[in-house]
């Protein structure tokens, strides 16, 4: 009975959609890690019904998480950690496609394609209320290409 319940919950989570309060997260994915790689860029789309800000990312599978933006300094693309990322009401914000992305740093074990990476997003609403949204990112093969596929220099 308990096993069936857990399987059902995992199946729901496997859809990589999570709803908590007024926030929807979809299409969460990351790549399998290369040997020696201990950080991962997580890509997803997040939509809040109300004005909010994304203020944190964390995972039991990593030592820390950061919200990153990509900025050009001269002709070098650099990553900068953001304290908060605005989530305008009813506007899908695609992390990973516009230079902003989530980084999980200090992975406790390699990410394997076909597995799922659990993580949590902390969102703060305009009224000060915060909500933690639990998400599972699909781990795709290392060679997966995407328009946003950029080199990561930490
Ligand atoms: Cu980054």
From TrEMBL:
The keyword Signal applies. SUPFAM superfamilies: DR1885-like metal-binding protein. Gene3D superfamilies: PCu(A)C copper chaperone (2.60.40.1890). Pfam families: PCuAC (PF04314). Keywords: Signal. Residues 1-20 form the signal peptide. InterPro entries: LpqE-like, Lxx211020-like, PCuAC_sf. The keyword Signal applies. This is Copper chaperone PCu(A)C.
